[in-house]
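>> received
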Amino acid sequence: MLTISRLRSGAVFVVSLAVAACGDGTPGVAETAKQKATPAPVVATSAKWVETVAKTPEGGYRIGNPDAPVKLIEFASLTCPHCKDFHEEALSTIKGKYVATGQVSYEFRNFILNPADYAATMLARCASPEAYFALSDAMFRAQAQWLEPFTKIDNATAERLSKLPPDEQIVEYAKTGKLDEFMRARGMPEAKFRACLTDARQRGELEAISKSARETFKIAGTPSFVINGEMQENVFNWESLQPKLDAAL
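>> returned
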């Protein structure tokens, strides 16, 4: 479990959240973006696939035809600015042009980068799959706003939090970052806020996703993409991902 006690320089770490790169993945690979790909086949679209949402056995959240011949997985962090940019630029196109055909499914898997990310992710996942996508979208859109309070956590506060029991740490940390206010505005009461943050089953799922991401796909940063089980090297944005997706079709 990612706790404040594992970050002895917790406040310094948290202060860097808003400007830190999202792990080792750095966007801007020009040559990849210039690659030409085979155009995607024209297939009749259906709103039903865009509305087909489910949680996968691997712990991700999938939109689309579960039997789609092309399976796209994104590993992303709710605190990653590059992930935010990707979702704003690409997700509506992925759903409308690709998922709606039934030929592509899109799965989002959380890749935790820091304590604020862990807290936000535990809260986002504490709902139905449909609600998950709505809440994660809200978190991406308001990313700068809800992250700001975490950048103001000082060393004394971090030290105080580090002395609490693990479950209490994450609850008090999230409250210090005002995530309770963010969630209350979206209908989550105090009791559920605490229960979601301390859900052992959900914590285990996140640990399993992280292990699979690192060991199976060698993922070190976000966003990272997998198409039909293959990690897409040097692909960090829609400009470089779209040719790969078209080629897979």
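>> The CA atoms of residues 11 and 153 lie 6 Å apart.
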